[in-house]
Amino acid sequence: MQSNQTVGIDLPLKVLVWQDTGGQVWLTYSDPTWLAWRHHLSSATDANVGALKLLLETVTKSATD
Description:
By secondary structure, the protein is of the alpha+beta class. It has one domain (about 5-65). About 40% of the residues lie in helices and about 10% in strands. The protein is built from two helices and two strands. It has helices spanning about 30-40, 45-65; strands at about 15-20, 25-30. A two-stranded antiparallel sheet has the order 1-2. A hairpin with a 5-residue loop joins strand 1 (about 15-20) and strand 2. The N and C termini lie far apart (about 30 Å). The mean pLDDT is about 95.
Protein backbone atom coordinates (compact mmCIF):
# COMPACT_ATOMS: atom_id res chain seq x y z
CA MET A 1 0.00 0.00 0.00
CA GLN A 2 2.97 2.30 0.36
CA SER A 3 3.51 2.26 -3.41
CA ASN A 4 -0.13 3.06 -4.23
CA GLN A 5 -2.90 3.17 -1.65
CA THR A 6 -5.58 2.02 -4.12
CA VAL A 7 -4.23 -1.53 -3.88
CA GLY A 8 -5.84 -1.58 -0.43
CA ILE A 9 -9.18 -2.35 -2.11
CA ASP A 10 -7.73 -5.76 -3.01
CA LEU A 11 -6.04 -6.44 0.32
CA PRO A 12 -5.81 -8.63 2.22
CA LEU A 13 -5.25 -11.23 -0.46
CA LYS A 14 -8.01 -13.81 -0.54
CA VAL A 15 -8.48 -17.32 -1.87
CA LEU A 16 -11.99 -18.47 -2.74
CA VAL A 17 -12.94 -22.15 -2.76
CA TRP A 18 -16.34 -22.80 -4.31
CA GLN A 19 -18.42 -25.52 -5.94
CA ASP A 20 -20.34 -25.02 -9.17
CA THR A 21 -23.76 -26.49 -9.96
CA GLY A 22 -22.10 -29.49 -11.61
CA GLY A 23 -20.28 -30.39 -8.40
CA GLN A 24 -16.84 -29.25 -9.62
CA VAL A 25 -14.80 -27.58 -6.87
CA TRP A 26 -12.75 -24.52 -7.83
CA LEU A 27 -10.02 -22.55 -6.12
CA THR A 28 -9.71 -18.96 -7.30
CA TYR A 29 -7.57 -15.94 -6.44
CA SER A 30 -6.39 -12.71 -8.04
CA ASP A 31 -2.84 -12.98 -9.34
CA PRO A 32 -0.59 -10.53 -7.45
CA THR A 33 1.11 -9.61 -10.76
CA TRP A 34 -2.26 -8.55 -12.16
CA LEU A 35 -3.01 -6.58 -8.99
CA ALA A 36 0.33 -4.77 -9.33
CA TRP A 37 -0.51 -3.92 -12.95
CA ARG A 38 -4.07 -2.87 -12.06
CA HIS A 39 -2.87 -0.47 -9.39
CA HIS A 40 0.18 0.78 -11.31
CA LEU A 41 2.64 -0.35 -8.65
CA SER A 42 6.22 0.67 -9.27
CA SER A 43 8.92 -1.79 -10.25
CA ALA A 44 10.29 -1.37 -6.72
CA THR A 45 7.52 -3.76 -5.62
CA ASP A 46 8.45 -6.52 -8.09
CA ALA A 47 10.31 -8.67 -5.55
CA ASN A 48 7.44 -8.52 -3.05
CA VAL A 49 4.83 -9.17 -5.72
CA GLY A 50 6.86 -12.15 -6.96
CA ALA A 51 7.14 -13.54 -3.44
CA LEU A 52 3.38 -13.22 -2.90
CA LYS A 53 2.71 -14.91 -6.22
CA LEU A 54 5.00 -17.83 -5.34
CA LEU A 55 3.42 -18.12 -1.89
CA LEU A 56 -0.12 -18.26 -3.32
CA GLU A 57 0.93 -20.80 -5.95
CA THR A 58 2.60 -22.99 -3.32
CA VAL A 59 -0.26 -22.84 -0.85
CA THR A 60 -2.98 -23.46 -3.44
CA LYS A 61 -1.04 -26.31 -5.05
CA SER A 62 -0.59 -27.91 -1.64
CA ALA A 63 -4.29 -27.50 -0.90
CA THR A 64 -5.35 -29.10 -4.17
CA ASP A 65 -2.93 -32.04 -4.27
